[in-house]
Amino acid sequence: MKRASWSARRIALVLYPFGAGAAAVNVFFAALIFSWVGGPVLSTGLSVLIGALLGIPATWYFAKHIRHLMDTADKGTVQ
Fold this sequence. Notes:
The protein is an all-alpha fold. Helices cover 75% and strands 0% of the residues.
């Protein structure tokens, strides 16, 4: 019996809430650090919106990396 493996798309869909949340937190803290040199402090809502947008490519690339690691583990070789 062959086990069905997860595609990179499925992994990305499952991990997207975590990726978007991490991106939102990073955007908010980056804005706070940028405020030390005179930049504006972003609101939490704007940080969440930017994080949701930045979370898409970040999660996609992370999911592709996880899929690669899964394929490598299935082959039994380490690169």
